[in-house]
What does this fold into?
Amino acid sequence: MITFFGNPSQKVFAVQTVQAIATADVSKLNWLFGDVEVVKDSTIEGSFVGPRATMITPWSTNAVEITQNMGVDGIIRIEEFQAIDTDSKDYDPMLQHKYNDVNQDIFTFEIKPEAVMDIEDIAAYTQQEGLALNTEEVDYLDGLAKKLGRKLTDSEVFGFSQVNSELWANIQNSPFLIALFTAILTLPQATHYVLDGFIWKFGQTNPNLKKIIANE
It folds into this structure.
């Protein structure tokens, strides 16, 4: 069940518990929330902005731990809900949700995981999902699918894209790795110069070379 504390015209705290909160614990929570009173209604009408049902905030985690240290048991989640105007859009839709009334279902959600999807066309899929895989990477995944004898799943392609992205991000942000890769890439050219210097070296090992070059 959910019990509300606070001023419905400003801000309320929604406390989700296993069972009804004991009277002694209500007094503790009144003090914890800044001497606000418990709201007797199970539903509060009006527009509110608060966290999404699927996203427990770090603030909630800390608040629940504080109540446990106060000797208040049985609390599952605590969240803040701010009263706003009905037509207000002053909130972050990525993290928050606008509620038309807050009630006993604000923390309830019924989301079923999507089924695993086999990717028919990896090149088209990476364009569709914005995975930024280049032609060589797509060819590698196509070859891997043939080697495994099955199509790659959406999670496998996403995972490869994420690991690949993190790898290059770490390389770009690491002076040591940049220097290492630069040294590896320049090694063939350096080897070429060393061999040229040895082959064309003037000295006793090739005394006639200088005369040949100078047409002497």
The chain has a mean pLDDT of 84. Strands lie at 2-7, 11-17, 38-39, 44-51, 75-83, 96-102.
